[in-house]
Automatic annotation (TrEMBL), chain A:
<feature type="transmembrane region" description="Helical">
    <location>
        <begin position="242"/>
        <end position="270"/>
    </location>
</feature>
<keyword id="KW-0472">Membrane</keyword>
<dbReference type="GO" id="GO:0005886">
    <property type="term" value="C:plasma membrane"/>
</dbReference>
<feature type="domain" description="ABC transmembrane type-1">
    <location>
        <begin position="94"/>
        <end position="311"/>
    </location>
</feature>
<dbReference type="InterPro" id="IPR035906">
    <property type="entry name" value="MetI-like_sf"/>
</dbReference>
<feature type="transmembrane region" description="Helical">
    <location>
        <begin position="290"/>
        <end position="314"/>
    </location>
</feature>
<dbReference type="Pfam" id="PF00528">
    <property type="entry name" value="BPD_transp_1"/>
</dbReference>
<feature type="transmembrane region" description="Helical">
    <location>
        <begin position="12"/>
        <end position="31"/>
    </location>
</feature>
<dbReference type="InterPro" id="IPR045621">
    <property type="entry name" value="BPD_transp_1_N"/>
</dbReference>
UniProtKB/TrEMBL annotation, chain B:
<protein>
    <submittedName>
        <fullName>Peptide/nickel transport system permease protein</fullName>
    </submittedName>
</protein>
<dbReference type="Pfam" id="PF00528">
    <property type="entry name" value="BPD_transp_1"/>
</dbReference>
<keyword id="KW-1133">Transmembrane helix</keyword>
<dbReference type="GO" id="GO:0055085">
    <property type="term" value="P:transmembrane transport"/>
</dbReference>
<feature type="domain" description="ABC transmembrane type-1">
    <location>
        <begin position="98"/>
        <end position="288"/>
    </location>
</feature>
<feature type="transmembrane region" description="Helical">
    <location>
        <begin position="205"/>
        <end position="231"/>
    </location>
</feature>
<dbReference type="GO" id="GO:0005886">
    <property type="term" value="C:plasma membrane"/>
</dbReference>
<feature type="transmembrane region" description="Helical">
    <location>
        <begin position="31"/>
        <end position="50"/>
    </location>
</feature>
<dbReference type="InterPro" id="IPR035906">
    <property type="entry name" value="MetI-like_sf"/>
</dbReference>
Length: 325, 299
């Protein structure tokens, strides 16, 4: 076990290093931020002073070494546009993104598990067919389009919910959140629903497939033969067995939900990390882009690492050999 | 082309007829295939049938801006689907946008397929270090959400049709490489390949005349669904403003351009391109999914 964990750790660090090199050179190698930051009227001397202050006159590899040295100290550079630490800028936006992601996940589980059971236990019925056809729509339609249609329906035509922004926030345990005000929740529903739809489709499919398979297993037949009621069979036996893969997949999907929130946040003008990323891309604010990608990579790597270890620890059938995962 | 080994079949029906039979066997799939055919035809014929050339600024009149569907412009021209903020006929813009979206999706999928098949075949044939290195790269690529990789790449190289294609190829080749490797590894264990090896046939000959044609089928079937994925990715990138340039708008960019007017009730500027995009993606998905199921390929 320890050897396996150690090996996965080394692997994770290598991935992070590789990403830092690729991203740094991809983002810093091309495009000149000075052109965007300085108005053409500024004198040459001021221009050069700014280049020097930002360290843009050094060779790229030297910029990378400086960057990595600082990164290890938790400093991923200063935003060219806002003039503050890139990492602080991103972390200040993090609560907005995470509340969106958490609510989306909760919605996906709360709605997806019952619908998945319904579709899996009686796959030939009409509601089941409609649910399964809906899941195809759910993950094949572009997220930005679904978001726009939600706005058109619930905000423009029906006028029930606001179209954009985060609404009123309160500070809970030092974190600004929209989860505890009525206005905040009203702003949160549409973006969270939009983010939840593909995950909801995934949960329904996983649960339906799991339930259909579980019903043919011997333990279910045995429980039936014993005269256990259907409700109890599903609740106690079937559901427990399907939830393991569902939880694993949701764990892995957590990272990509954070990445996908970029689209939802753009559509709903939600001031989270994804919106910050897009804005920084437009403004060629390279330190923020690089810092975002590295933080996102750190998140993916950590989540995958934890899921692997947890999965191995929970399921005795998974053997922890020294092999590469 | 010979019949992929994964198909459980009457070996003498030609592949093309078999594909058509599978598509025809269900009404929804048949409808989707017909719709897809019509859209491809419309895209190809766009310069001939579009009422206006939407890229030609001289033919646009700003006076005609944001006309509702069915209204007539200053020159008496009928705008069936309305006009956008520049006075551009939406029907023409959609036809040309369909063309750009389809072209990007097909070109990206074709390039990604070529790279993925080559990499997967090489990994399966040579094994050892080649296999290990290639598959580590594949694992690395598949470890990140495609939207993020493409977004960051385009953020650094700028927008453009060729650049969007490059970004989509970069995020899609890895899945084909993995599939191709798996299919080729299964095929390599078969007796006829063993016989060819023992017979002393050159490795290159075995790779290209035996291994490739007999294991590529499942990869091609999966690619038919991935075209929809490529078109979705392009639309999303263009919507976010890092995709195709404003001079050559795809459906995604048209939708983005109309977004600000959606809130004030001028729905047609983004809703009609959106409907075209949805129909395109859904029909590609339905046809591709039917092919995948009938050829029994797991993606």
């Amino acid at each position: 076990m320890t050897a396996y964990i150690l090996q996965r750790l080394i692997q994770s660090v290598l991935v992070l290093l590789a990403v830092s090199v690729v991203v740094f050179f991809a983002v810093y190698g091309i495009g000149d931020p000075i052109e965007l930051l300085v108005s053409p009227q500024v004198s040459q001397a001021e221009r050069l002073a700014l280049i020097k202050r930002l360290g843009l006159d050094l060779p790229v590899w030297q910029q990378y070494l400086t960057f990595m040295g600082n990164a290890l100290k938790g400093d991923l550079g200063r935003s060219f546009v806002h003039g503050v630490s890139a990492i602080e800028l991103i972390l200040a936006r993090a609560p907005a993104t995470f509340e969106l992601v958490l609510l989306a996940m909760s919605m996906a589980i709360a709605v997806g598990v019952p619908l998945g059971l319904l579709a899996g236990l009686d796959p030939e019925s009409r509601p089941s067919r409609i649910i399964m056809a809906g899941t195809v729509l759910g993950y094949s339609l572009p997220s930005f389009w679904k978001g726009m249609m939600l706005i058109l329906l619930f905000a423009v035509l029906l006028g029930w919910l606001p179209t954009a922004g985060r609404g009123e926030t309160v500070t809970v345990l030092g974190i600004q959140t929209s989860l505890f005000t009525l206005d905040g929740l009203r702003h949160l529903i549409l973006p969270a629903l939009n983010l939840a739809i593909p995950i909801l489709a995934l949960v329904i499919r996983l649960v339906a497939a799991g339930a259909a398979e579980a019903m043919t297993q011997d333990y279910v037949k045995y429980a039936r033969a014993k005269g256990v009621r259907a409700k109890r069979i599903i609740g106690r036996h079937v559901l427990r067995n399907i939830l393991i893969p569902v939880v694993t997949v949701l764990g892995i999907e957590f990272g990509s939900l954070v990445a996908f929130s970029t689209i939802t946040e753009t559509v709903f003008a939600w001031p989270g990390m994804g919106k910050l990323l897009i804005d920084s891309v437009y403004q060629l604010d390279r330190p923020v882009v690089v810092a975002y990608v590295l933080l996102a990579t750190l998140l993916f790597v950590t989540v995958n690492f934890l899921v692997d270890i947890l999965y191995a620890a929970l399921d005795p059938r998974v053997k922890l050999t020294g092999e590469m995962a | 082309m010979s019949v992929p080994a994964s198909i459980p079949t009457e070996a003498d029906t030609p592949l093309r007829r078999k594909v058509l039979q599978r598509i025809n066997s269900r009404p929804t799939t048949r409808g989707a295939a017909i719709l897809l055919g019509i859209m491809v035809l419309l895209a190809l014929l766009a310069p001939v049938i579009a009422p206006q050339n939407p890229h030609d600024l001289a033919s646009l009149s700003v006076m005609d801006n944001r006309l509702a569907p069915g209204e007539r412009g200053m020159s008496g021209m009928l705008f069936l689907l309305g006009t956008d903020a520049q006075g551009r006929d939406m029907l023409s813009a959609i036809l040309y946008g369909l063309r750009t979206s389809l072209m990007v999706g097909l070109a990206a999928t074709a390039c990604a397929l070529a790279i993925g098949i080559a990499a997967g075949l090489a990994a399966a044939q040579f094994g050892g270090v080649v296999d290990a290195v290639l598959m580590r790269i594949v694992d690395f690529m598949l470890g990140f959400p495609s939207i993020l990789v493409a977004l960051v790449l385009l953020a650094s190289i700028g927008r453009g049709v060729d650049k969007v294609i490059l970004a989509i190829v970069l995020v899609q080749w890895a899945q084909y490489a993995r599939l191709m490797r798996a299919a080729a590894l299964v095929e390599r264990r078969k007796e006829y390949i063993e016989a060819a090896v023992n017979f002393g046939l050159p490795t290159r000959y075995i790779m290209f005349t035996h291994l490739l044609p007999n294991s590529v089928g499942s990869v091609l079937v999966v690619a038919s669904i991935s075209i929809a994925g490529a078109i979705t990715l392009e639309a999303t990138l263009s919507f976010l403003g890092v995709g195709v340039p404003v001079t050559e708008p795809s459906l995604g960019l048209l939708i983005a351009n109309g977004f600000e007017f959606l809130l004030s009730g001028e729905y047609w500027i983004s809703v009609f391109p959106g409907i075209a995009l949805v129909l395109l993606i859904m029909s590609l998905n339905l046809v591709g999914d039917r092919l995948r199921r009938s050829f029994n390929v797991r993606s």
